[in-house]
């Protein structure tokens, strides 16, 4: 297995403007020095509470928003230095599926038009070819070619996300960033969509970055999982290692809140004090120190490096030196 994506020191800072002339008065460190690698064919889950920077990480990788700093390599090519038009060409291979299928589909366009658009953009000029491809894609995601003439409002939430997936797959991408693709759906529909996505990964050799705020959603589908807190990656390892032996105190707290299959099993729920601090004013040192049950003096001063503590198990925490 070789890496398809290498993210190195990715940062995205947003300016906060204020005052009568809108001067810069501060910045939000939405993504603050995040590094990880995704292997070809794998599903990497990225988990964290809302506002932790996981969506911004996804969008910065695709340069849908420009990163402030850092390198992103896709198939050995540094894409952070590409021009916009070179980048547009490459987006054929790198797609994103959004959380809200309602908002991401143009309500005035038929499904045919919605799915044809990326085909046209990337050079499929024959209308007949496009129509055939739309029918094929609809079948791939479990809809019927007969649905092509309908509009988004004529579909259920789950069906709309299937349309979103069909559009993302139109040009045979290699990497798909899935930004909470099931969070807006009923729980009963979520597993159908997750199963479909897993099937499509196998069928088309896809690689996913699967973003979620809920550890129970990524548990099944991911090969490895990264946990983010306040713009930083705090732990990253294989799924089973993360669930059986979480090392970062934040991961331990998140996992203690995931319902167990057997509710009678004893468990120690770790309740964190306080709320997530503002990313405009993150705590010094380890950003988690204001809430961490194990915080030490050094944690307020020194930012812990994100480093391997075992084979394939990265943690940013001073407890593991
Ligand atoms: Fe807790 Fe310190 Fe580890 Fe941060 S570095 S998670 S504050 S023990
Ligand atoms: Mg988000």
* Termini gap: 30 Å
Q: Helix/strand/pairing class, anyone?
A: alpha/beta
CATH architecture: 3-Layer(aba) Sandwich
Under CATH at level 1, the class stands as Alpha Beta
Tell me the count of domains.
1
GO molecular function: ATP binding
InterPro entries: AAA+_ATPase, ABC_transp_ATP-bind, ABC_transporter-like_ATP-bd, ABC_transporter-like_CS, Oligopep_ABC_C, P-loop_NTPase
Domain ABC transporter: 5-255
Family: Belongs to the ABC transporter superfamily.
Secondary-structure map:
Elements: E1 3-18, E2 23-39, E3 43-47, H1 54-61, E4 69-74, E5 77-78, H2 84-90, E6 94-97, H3 101-104, H4 111-121, H5 127-140, H6 157-169, E7 175-179, H7 187-204, E8 207-212, H8 215-221, E9 224-229, E10 232-238, H9 239-244, H10 249-256, H11 297-301, E11 307-310, E12 313-315
The structure holds iron/sulfur cluster and magnesium ion (MG).
Iron/sulfur cluster binds next to loops.
Keywords: ATP-binding, Nucleotide-binding, Transport
Domain ABC transporter: 5-255
Protein name: ABC transporter ATP-binding protein
Describe this structure as you would to a colleague.
Helices cover 31% and strands 25% of the residues. A hairpin with a 2-residue loop joins strand 11 (307-310) and strand 12 (313-315). It has a single domain (3-93, 173-315), classed as Rossmann fold (3-Layer(aba) Sandwich). The strands form 2 sheets. An 8-stranded mixed β-sheet has the order 6-7-8-3-9-10-12-11, sandwiched between helices. By secondary structure, it is of the alpha/beta class. It has 11 helices and 12 strands. The structure holds iron/sulfur cluster and magnesium ion. Magnesium ion binds next to loops.
């Amino acid at each position: 297995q070789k890496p398809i994506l290498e993210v190195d020191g990715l940062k995205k800072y947003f300016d906060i403007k204020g005052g009568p002339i809108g001067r810069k008065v501060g910045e939000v460190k939405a993504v603050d020095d995040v590094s990880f690698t995704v292997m070809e064919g794998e599903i990497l889950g990225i988990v964290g509470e809302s506002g932790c920077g996981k969506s911004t990480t996804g969008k910065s990788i695709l340069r849908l928003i420009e990163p402030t700093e850092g390198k992103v390599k896709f198939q050995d090519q540094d894409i952070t230095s590409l021009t916009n038009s070179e980048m547009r060409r490459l987006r054929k291979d790198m797609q994103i599926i959004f959380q809200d299928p309602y908002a991401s589909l143009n309500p005035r366009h038929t499904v045919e038009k919605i799915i044809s658009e990326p085909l046209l953009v990337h050079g499929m000029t024959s209308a007949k070819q496009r129509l055939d491809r739309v029918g094929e894609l609809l079948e791939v995601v479990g809809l019927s070619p007969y649905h092509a003439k309908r509009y988004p409002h004529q579909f259920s939430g789950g069906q709309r996300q299937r349309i979103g997936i069909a559009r993302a797959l139109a040009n045979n991408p290699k990497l798909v960033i899935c930004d909470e693709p099931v969070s807006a759906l009923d729980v009963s529909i979520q597993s159908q969509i997750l199963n479909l996505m897993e099937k499509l990964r196998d069928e088309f050799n896809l690689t996913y970055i699967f973003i979620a705020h809920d550890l129970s959603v990524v548990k099944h589908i991911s090969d490895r999982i990264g946990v983010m807190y306040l713009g930083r990656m705090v732990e990253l390892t294989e799924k089973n290692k993360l669930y059986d032996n979480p090392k970062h105190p934040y991961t331990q707290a998140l996992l203690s809140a995931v319902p167990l299959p057997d509710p009678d099993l004893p468990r120690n729920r770790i309740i964190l004090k306080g709320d997530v601090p503002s990313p405009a004013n993150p705590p010094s040192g380890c950003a988690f120190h204001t809430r961490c049950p194990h915080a030490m003096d050094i944690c307020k001063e020194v930012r812990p490096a994100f480093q391997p503590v075992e084979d394939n198990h990265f943690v940013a925490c001073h407890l593991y030196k």
